[in-house]
Amino acid sequence: MVPPPFRGVFTQQEPIDEASIAGAVAVLRSGRLHRYNVLPGEVSEAALLEREYAAWQGSRYCLACASGGQAMQLALRAFGLAAGEPVLTNAFTLAPVPGAIVAAGGRPVFVETTADLVIDLDDLARKAGESGSRLLLLSHMRGHLVDMEALGRLLAERGVTLIEDCAHTMGARWKGRRSGSFGLAACFSAQTYKHINSGEGGLLVSDDAALMARAIVSSGSYMLYDRHGAAPELDQFAAARLESPNLSARMDNLRAAILRPQLAALDRNIDRWNERYAAVAHELERVQAIRLPARPSAESFVGSSIQFLVPGIGAETARRFVAANAALGVELKWFGDPEPRGYTSTHLSWRFVDPQVLPATDRILSDVFDMRIPLTFSVGDCTQIGQIIAHCAGELGAAAMAG
């Protein structure tokens, strides 16, 4: 029996809360939108956000940025990335991650992914040795955390520094420790489809004073670095203020005002996302053809999207599967498509990067489907969505067996 179509919109986010609207209106009425445009004695919204996010994350320093991609670029530049230097990163990620490496002057070296959609530590060990890279920009892609303790041991043995891309893991934990606290620095996103929403925005955190001083100056502080909310002591800026290029990449006061109240609701929203994730997953777990990536007990994740594999589905059947779900109102993305579509693409279409041979990743991604779970959906909606996906998988399986 065909389930009723789903009528929800997969790109519709919840309304911005009244406190955020009030904060934004206050900034607009003041006319002081620029990050350093304050009255004597006034602390800017951008500085207040930095202070509050640093406290929430448990980091010494925080820099509010124009985007998550800018946060990654600033981190890489502040690390001291040299022109053409190799940077290890996941093969399974989104285009802004290798894009940030290239923009900072580096050369991405892709590491294979596993069937559980995390970085392959064996391939990482091999490529760390072959490339001589000093740095891993680790994308916790779609919210999947690798064994962070095993990763830390591997990187320490090889002298490789870790920078975390936590665009999909704001609030996630490994054995109780927050994602973004395992490396030299971490980068978060406040883009509409992430966990807090300012349309576009990013946050860079670190406990390293020298790195953050360089990042703050590069973000466009001019000589106003004392107006940051979670910055190192002023003596850390003595060299950075003269040596770091101005990239005008710090967040404005309007977006900061929109974000500040959202932090208070974040932990509650993580629980809401995970309820909805569980409802979809419950339906998919019943389908023999579908495999969900393993979620280790050490991982506390944020279920704002869900990924599943249909092993051996093949390109033609995968396209039919996506179309069948779309006909019933469910919007799936398929990572096996060689053509980039919307936000979904793979290394095969990133021609700004040297071509690389990644057979394991290509094989796995050809089976991977991805779906957003906005909080505008109810738990009941998510049960219905899971039932539609299960139905379409069953229909395609029956057709394949008949063929």
CATH-defined superfamily of the largest domain: Type I PLP-dependent aspartate aminotransferase-like (Major domain)
Briefly, what CATH class of the largest domain? Alpha Beta
N-to-C span: 21 Å
| Arithmetic mean pLDDT | 96
By CATH, the architecture of the largest domain is named 3-Layer(aba) Sandwich
Helical amount: 40-55%
Broad structural category:
alpha/beta
What is the radius of gyration?
22 Å
The tally of structural domains comes to: 2
| Basic shape | globular
CATH third-tier fold name of the largest domain = Aspartate Aminotransferase, domain 2
Low-confidence stretches: none
Percent of residues in β-strands: 5-15%
For the largest sheet, list the strands in their spatial order.
1-9-8-5-4-2-3
Q: Let me know the largest β-sheet.
A: 7 strands, mixed
Walk me through what this model shows.
This protein is an alpha/beta fold. The protein has two domains: 18-262, Type I PLP-dependent aspartate aminotransferase-like (Major domain) (Aspartate Aminotransferase, domain 2); 264-402, Aspartate Aminotransferase, domain 1. Helices cover 40% and strands 13% of the residues. It has helices at residues 18-30, 45-57, 68-79, 96-103, 121-131, 148-158, 209-221, 237-243, 253-259, 262-284, 315-327, 359-365, 379-402; strands at residues 61-65, 86-90, 107-111, 135-139, 161-165, 173-174, 177-178, 185-189, 202-206, 299-300, 305-309, 333-334, 368-372. The strands form three sheets. Strands 1-9-8-5-4-2-3 form a seven-stranded mixed β-sheet, with helices on both faces. The chain is globular. The mean pLDDT is 96.
